[in-house]
Amino acid sequence: MGRNRPSKSRLRTKTLLIGAALVAASAGAAVAADQVLLRAREGAAAMLRGQYDRAVTLYDEAVGTPDVSKFVLASIYSDRGVAKWRMKQTKEAIDDFNESIQLAPDNAIVYNNRGNALMDLGHPEEAIKDFDRAIVLDPNYGAAFNNRGNAYAALQNYDAAFQSFRKATALLSRTAAPYNGRGRSHMERARYHAALRDLDRSIRLDPKLAAAYRNRAVANFELGNYAAAADDATQALDLEPEQDKSKLFMLRARSYAAQNSFREGVADFDRVLDLEPEKVDAFMERGELLAKNKRYDAAIKDFNKVLELEPKNAKAYALRGETKYFDRKADEGYIDVNIALILTPDDPRALRIRGDIFRAQKRTENAIADYQKAASLDPFEENARTGLEQLRAPVPPDTRKPLGEPVAGWIITEKSPGRYVATNADYRGVTVPMEMFGAGKPKLLAWDKLKGAQSSIGLLRYDAGTPTGDGAFEYVAVIDTRKKEVLAIEPERWGDKAATWTWQTASLSVTDPDGNVSEVELQPERTRSAPVARRRRDDGGGFFGFAQQQPQRPAPRQRARRRSGGNSNPLGWLFR
What we know:
With about 575 residues, the chain is α+β, with helices and mostly antiparallel strands. It contains 22 helices and 13 strands. The strands form four sheets. Strands 5-6-7-8-9 form a five-stranded antiparallel sheet, with no helix packed on it. A three-stranded antiparallel sheet has the order 2-3-4, with no helix packed on it. Helix 15 (about 260-275) runs antiparallel to helix 16 (about 280-290) and helix 18 (about 315-325) packs parallel to helix 20 (about 350-360). It is globular, with a radius of gyration of 29 Å. Mean pLDDT is about 85; it is low at about 1-10, about 20-30 and about 525-575.
């Protein structure tokens, strides 16, 4: 999906230049010039009809006409390059773009076109140079910013990609592709809430953009929105049935499995295995779903297949052992989980499973020891902690060193290298990802609880880093403490630019500093009146920007003008 290759929604501005060029021809043009005009018009018409081979033939005739001006000839080469690119003749297209640049070196559009062709040939570094040149020639060239974002993403420079896509969204606010690209950049930095915000907007702008559905399916899955993830995967498959088919079936299978939708999940795992008969993850996860639904023999068969493919797969031994334990074969399960722990002695899950088996065997002290070790190795291993509480045994203290000072009981810890979360002993089960947008580490700033109908809603504000060229970013996690769920992570401030938060009875609308709007459903408890989060004084512990007493619509944004190196030709807005 969007993770492994540049999105196919890449904005391909393949602009046909000949019309503007020929307008400049003198009224008293010779017959040869009239022939050029005729062939060029016919070539452009053929391009619009998708008859690219016919277009190339007509452009060939135009190029072969004697006494054609350099400016006109440059335009013909550029347009013929577009036609050849459409025919997948990428190297030949680049040759034509090179000819065009030799004749007219200051045309931003041709550099953008050549950059896209270089991307197709797998040369993102060289493509960036062309996109940079296009932007120098036309600083308002939104498509070039978008395409440069794709090139940076191909080089896994997602911070630079984010900045390019951000500029593209400002210039092309009514175009879906830049929002999809920026959403993908967020995903690669594990900013799934931010990704969802951009991908929602991308899909609103273009409901048929399959790449945005593929990316949003991943973001929804990572956020635990499993039903939405399955729906997005289905939509992507409907729009482009052959694109990333196996990955989408796998993601949808996982989404169904997470909801314990047994038949649907097994059916999709089967589809994956039809496409990739030796895919270990599909056997493993189908086995887990089968075991969860008491199909123990079938589950063990899947784990056996994993071990046939990967004889030292510790997870397969652990899960096969757990399945045997579920099937009241604890002694057989004990053998498997011991093998798993020989292969990976500090695996928290295997330790927890062996603890369960010890407990079934009435070996309480051994169970406690395994549970305690599992909880010490992984503070998020809730099953081990629950086992200790049920056995009334001491639960190991969380040895992770908090980052910074606590705020109202909330602390930040490093879940994995470079990945931070906030937790609070008063809200056990709530884990807030600290999505970061620049240099630095997260810092908690404030915690507010709302009142009245929204009394279950809490707002955790934090410093989200300082991107290059910007001031500090501040974000707010919107938390439903009753459901133990992070509803959204929304911007509060980007440098000196504040977001606008508008509260309604059952929802929240956030307009980010660039003017983009997202909606958050709050599902309040039933009471008569709806609360309003009010502005506080700058006392170091409150929010700024929550002053709306009545629901307000965000100010309408001006419809963005399409900019393409000074050429308003509608043929310049083609998507791939």
